[in-house]
Amino acid sequence: MENSSKTHIRYREAERRMKKIKGFYTHAMVYFFVNIFIIGAKALDLDPGEKYWEWDLLKLPLLWGVGLAAHGLSIFLPTMILGSDWEEKKIKELMDKNKY
Question: For the chain, what are the domain ranges?
Answer without folding.
Answer: 2-97
